[in-house]
Amino acid sequence: MADVRTYTLIYVVLLVLGTGKFVFFQFPEIFPEAAAIGGTIILAVIKVLLIAAYYQHLIEEPRAITYMMGVAVFMVFLLTIAAGYSIQ
């Protein structure tokens, strides 16, 4: 199990990543809208991976469970794309 120092470090990284999402949209002259959206998605994926790995303790689980969670997330992604396609 991770110690308090690790959780604090992960918390600070999540805080910085959240601030990065804010910065993307506050400086449109540096980051065009498409770059801001793409950067926000990348930062969100990194945040999800950190939260799942450390706060939900997947990093300590056997690899089979981690792969099962990855497949589940991929399936949700496919369902989201299918739902978006059917709305159009």
UniProtKB/TrEMBL annotation:
Mode of membrane association: Multi-pass membrane protein
This protein's UniProt keywords: Cell membrane, Membrane, Transmembrane, Transmembrane helix
Pfam families in UniProt: COX4_pro (PF03626)
Annotated TM spans: 7-28, 34-55, 67-87
Subcellular location per the Swiss-Prot or TrEMBL entry: Cell membrane
Keyword rRNA-binding: no
Primary localization: membrane
Superkingdom of source: Archaea
GO cellular component, one term: plasma membrane
Listed InterPro entries: Cyt_c_oxidase_su4_prok
Protein name in the entry: Cytochrome C oxidase subunit IV
Annotated source species: Natronococcus amylolyticus DSM 10524
Taxonomic lineage of the native organism: Archaea, Methanobacteriati, Methanobacteriota, Stenosarchaea group, Halobacteria
